[in-house]
Amino acid sequence: MSQIHSNSSPFSPLQVLPLAVSSKPAPPLLIRNGRIIDPANQRDEIADLFIQSGVIIGDPPAKLPTETQTLDASGLIVAPGLIDIHVHLREPGAPHKETIESGTFAAAAGGFTSVLAMPNTSPPCDSPAAVMWLLQRILQKSSVRVFIAGAITKSLAGEELAPIGSMLKAGIVAITDDGHCVQNHEVMRRALEYASMFQLPVLDHCQDYNLSADGVMHEGQWSLRLGLQGWPRIAEEVIVARNILLAELCSTPIHIQHVSSAGSVRLLREASARKLKITAEVCPHHLWFTDEKLQNFDSTFKVNPPLRERHDIEALLEAIVEGTITIFASDHAPHANYEKEVEIDHAPFGMTGLETELAAFATLLIHRERAIDWPRLIACYTVNPARLLKLNLGTLTAGAPADLTLISPNLRWTFDRNQSFSLSKNTPFHGCEFVGRAVQTIVAGRTIWKLL
Ligand code: DOR
Q1: Which class is 80-389 in CATH?
Q2: CA 26 to ligand 1 centroid distance, Å
Q3: What are the boundaries of each domain within the chain?
Q4: How far apart are CA 309 and CA 262, in angstroms?
Q5: What is the dihedral of CA 301, 307, 309, 310, to 10 degrees?
Q6: Residue 280 alpha carbon to ligand 1 centre in Å
Q7: Which site in 68, 115, 167, 242 is 20 to 30 Å from 15, CA atoms measured?
Q8: Which of 406, 390, 379 has its CA nearest to residue 113?
Q9: Maximum pairwise Cα distance, the chain
Q10: Atom nearest to 334 CA in ligand 1
Q11: Which mean pLDDT values do the consecutive 10-residue runs of the chain (452 residues) have?
């Protein structure tokens, strides 16, 4: 299938209201007969939606402006623009893996209108200067909104707090040491106390280094059979438990990134029963694949945290159904072929995901398992992440920015990594058959990607 993409207007990544950066404003648009799903307003109905000057208007006015364009959305879902809060764009430092330009093209092609960029770049995003450099680059190159996560600690080394307050002034919307994990609990406590002064969201990649040691895959029967060092569940779970305790102590919310284990689900469930402010995200690969995928030493399936076992997948599914996990994300982690095509011990962790995540979740959770419906899935990509990051996005409320994702819910398609916009092809979903796909992505009223 061919696709078109236009990268016409850059816009401020922090701008969550319409802006006048393009010389020509987006023409008014009437989207007709779509299934409007707006979980923020508990709305699910067939209706028309009118947008103008980059803003949601709502019902069309009695007299439409003459220049109004019309889009027939019969058979399509009209959703608020999807938000992925876990994306590695690799700039600065590794433009051979991904750039802001290529990564945001890939995001648009996956139906995403906003992404949160992780700070484990080279150099890392751990200073106001780094944030400002990135903002400039985003303004020049991005085709979707890019929000920035700053580091918790300088150089992501886990020792000294990064200048969190001045990074916030420079434009970050959250902090995390993602790719790394703060091992020193005292440092993490101070980070939480400091972040709470600004109500800045704290996100954490949970990995105890002593327990995960040199593990390259899940510790279990497959790591034993293959003779590979294991990265056990407990290495994630002790940090999830630590974070829950610190969140309670500091009365500060924490968001747990890429949950992979049944034990973490149990801890999160207990925390939410105790009304602690803990949120969590899950990535599609942790639901689609088990550690068995490593049996041929294929480093495409090497990811951190690692693919686990069937009963972990079942626990993650339950957590989604019951609402313990409320956010979906990709952990889009591009790596070049030459980096991945080495002995598995030496290959980097990570897999791409922006162009497949929506379809992977829809295929598994809606069509195969019948575990959730479209409004639930869309909430996990819109209102829930928007609330976590305190963004005025993820809704079709009148006056909100006109960021929209049009989804064909029953479209059958097969993903081909060679047609990916990402510069890297390290996807575990090559050749997978999906049901459901984003077909048009609109940012601030402007179509930035459309499936032909
Ligand atoms: O597999 C991963 N790759 N997990 C992470 O947390 C980091 C990421 C990367 O940056 O490559």
Answers
A1: alpha beta
A2: 37
A3: 80-389
A4: 9
A5: -80
A6: 17
A7: 68
A8: 406
A9: 70
A10: 11
A11: 37 33 76 98 98 97 96 98 98 98 97 98 98 96 96 98 98 98 98 97 98 98 98 98 98 98 98 97 98 98 98 98 98 98 98 98 97 98 98 97 98 97 98 98 96 86
